[in-house]
Design goal:
Helix content is about 45%, strand content about 15%. By secondary structure, it is of the alpha/beta class. The protein folds into three domains: about 5-95, Arc Repressor Mutant, subunit A (Orthogonal Bundle); about 105-145, no CATH class; about 150-334, Rossmann fold (3-Layer(aba) Sandwich), CATH 3.40.50.150. β9 (about 315-320) and β10 (about 325-334) form a beta hairpin. α2 packs across α6, α3 (about 40-50) packs across α4 (about 55-65) and α6 crosses α10 (about 140-150). The longest helix is centred in the N-terminal third of the chain and has 14 residues, at about 15-30. The structure holds S-adenosylmethionine (SAM). S-adenosylmethionine binds next to α10.
């Protein structure tokens, strides 16, 4: 192997150092200590965040070499566009997303297990499936909800700009989490009604968000497991970042419940990445690694979606790409 390849592999092997450094910045709130255009010395940053000054300087120097933060000649650190998004109060803040990764990062220790067995690495490391684990650790629920909104929140507007939801009277958001997605749709479509369905421990946060958005009269909430039932009463069923959490067999169960209650002429809307075939680079292929390692699901190609829909009593009718990484994969009951 030549020097070039060794050097490239050295760089790639340190991807974990970069990920962990970003997670650490987010967890410690370091980006929040810097106001853009007002560089702060490391001594001040260390004192404000309870860090070891030299250790913090080394991490910040590494991050600055990767385009997050910039070091001034006097050894102070200022923001770059990338690092400023790690401030908790920035527009579209990524802080909660990086904090989420920080809290469950150990799951990656199970990647080899996932590759060898085809079962989730998270379960091997944490002793149980991720959603059970989160249900049993109340401190994690809000971190994961906020993380999902931080990472995927921007997709809501992209989805609404690309796909026409008009004609839908009642939209059910299945596995709707903290309600930020259904809130965004109902705000864009003022006569539409909503129904949010998720596990019991998520309900409090969903209700609080709907209340804050003045949407309680237009959106009901219902707790339950989509492995047991999917609520009737809607003419469209939205699943964003749900189907990719599960195997085909599990998805046939979930979508099968949906098939039982969806009216003829109703719409199934799966909002997820559609993995391109071949060697083309795509963030969906990285998210697919996360799905394999954490919940044990997969990101799917269009062909895989078509087959999954068929197995669940639906026909794939339309794939609408958006300006974000997700597409709206539409199905009609057959
Ligand atoms: C990856 S998050 C997606 C949240 C939301 N749809 C979004 O796009 O931001 C997965 C959601 O599925 C919910 N969930 C997991 N297992 C479930 C089950 N058996 N029944 C209902 N919801 C479930 C979780 O509580 C969580 O809110």
């Amino acid at each position: 192997m030549g020097q070039q390849e060794t050097e490239k592999l050295n760089e790639l092997m340190h991807g974990a150092a970069l990920t962990r450094a970003i997670c650490t910045v987010a967890e410690l709130g370091i980006a929040d200590q810097i106001e853009g255009g007002k560089p702060r010395p490391v001594s001040e940053l260390a004192a404000a965040t309870g860090c070891h000054e030299q250790g913090l300087h080394r991490m910040m120097r590494f991050l600055a070499s990767q385009g997050l933060f910039t070091e001034t000649a006097s050894g102070a650190f200022d923001h770059t566009p990338l690092s400023s998004v790690l401030r908790g109060d920035s527009v579209g803040s990524y802080r909660a997303g990086a904090r989420m990764f920080h809290h469950i990062f150990a799951g990656w220790d199970g990647l080899d297990h996932a590759v060898k067995t085809g079962t989730p690495g998270f379960d091997k490391v944490f002793g149980k499936p991720i959603f059970d684990y989160v249900g049993e650790h109340p401190e994690l629920g809000p971190i994961l909800d906020a993380g999902m909104t931080s990472i995927h929140g921007y997709e809501t507007e992209a989805m609404l700009d690309a796909y026409d939801f008009s004609g839908i009277s009642v939209l059910a958001d299945i596995g709707g989490g903290n309600g930020s997605l259904i809130s965004g749709v109902l705000k864009r479509y003022p006569v539409m009604r909503g129904l949010l369905f998720d596990l019991g421990h998520v309900m409090g946060r969903a209700k609080a968000n709907l209340e804050a958005g003045g949407l309680t009269d237009r959106c009901s909430v219902m707790e339950g497991s989509f492995f047991e039932t999917v609520p009737a009463g809607a003419d469209a069923y939205l699943f964003r970042h749900i189907i990719h959490d599960w195997t085909d067999e599990q998805c046939v169960g979930i979508l099968g419940h949906c098939r039982k209650v969806i009216p003829a002429g109703g719409r199934l809307l799966v909002v997820e990445c559609v993995v391109p075939e071949g060697n083309e680079p795509s963030i969906s292929k990285a998210f697919d690694m996360t799905m394999m390692t954490f919940p044990g699901g997969l990101e799917r190609t269009e062909k895989q979606f078509r087959k999954l829909f068929e197995m669940s009593g639906f026909e794939l009718s339309l794939v609408t790409p958006t300006s974000s990484m997700v597409s709206v994969v539409e199905g009609k009951p057959v």
